[in-house]
Design a protein that fits this description.
alpha+beta; about 240 residues; about 15% strand
Length: about 240
């Protein structure tokens, strides 16, 4: 009997029922009405059944990402966030064509169904990038670590899929971006919102020269437009 009650409690907490809002309840009722129309009244069942089930599931199942994060060991969560920030800075400092060449491997503690913390291994790899070089499709998997030695350390290894090299993100140094004095001046004026014509007037150079410098800036910073150039300059400390 105790096992049955624990199972019921697990279903309650692992689903969205434990944190339903009135908006969720309204949407669930809408889903039930659609089910009734599709099954009892046979009204457009091929259309309404998928909509109804999708509506009910979306408003009862807890978001997978939120659920997973709730199982992280609290001491490991902040460390993982910092590691991911550092790795993001490293990845985005690379040319677009190299950003899919790396797999991040983390080892940390996760709570299992018995409410015990075990060590797991998580692998994440960018599969696709958007046109501006941002990751939009990431493959990730988590498995139980073969080594369950007690430790409070969060471990992370970066694997280069092209050459097999592995290194720790704590040893990663973001490549320094070398800009000429003129390129720096133009980047600072771009940050102030000046157009090429205005930059040319301020620096007493031709628009053609300004455009050449702008193209060089985009290439050196590994970006595709002025907004990304400003963001890259701020992240690397070139701009303030």
């Amino acid at each position: 009997m105790d096992g049955f009650m624990r199972a019921l409690a697990s279903v309650w907490t692992d689903s969205g029922f434990a944190s339903l809002t009135w908006e969720n309840i309204v949407m669930i009722l809408v889903g039930l009405v659609l089910l009734y129309l599709a099954i009892a009244k046979e009204y457009e069942p091929l259309l309404l059944l998928p909509i109804a089930f999708g509506d009910i599931m979306a408003n009862t199942l807890e978001k997978q990402g939120d659920y997973l994060e709730s199982r992280f060991h609290p001491d490991d969560f902040a460390r993982l966030e910092q590691l991911q920030i550092n790795l993001s800075k490293f990845i985005y400092s690379l040319p677009h064509e190299q950003r899919n060449d790396y797999c991040n491997i983390y080892s940390f503690r996760l709570m299992n169904a018995k409410q015990q913390y075990i060590r797991v291994i998580s692998r994440q790899q960018v599969l696709e990038q958007s046109l501006n070089g941002k990751a939009w499709l990431i493959l990730g998997n988590i498995e139980i670590a073969p080594n369950q030695t007690e430790t409070d350390q969060v471990e992370c290894t970066v694997l280069n899929l092209k050459n097999g090299e592995m290194f720790s993100p704590t040893l990663v140094s973001i490549p320094r971006i070398h800009l000429t004095q003129r390129e720096l001046e133009i980047l600072q004026l771009i940050q102030k919102g000046l157009l090429s014509k205005e930059i040319a007037h301020n620096l007493c150079i031709s628009i053609h020269t300004v455009n050449i410098h702008r193209q060089n800036l985009l290439h050196k910073l590994g970006v595709q437009n002025s907004i990304e150039a400003i963001n890259a300059g701020l992240k690397s400390g070139i701009l303030s």
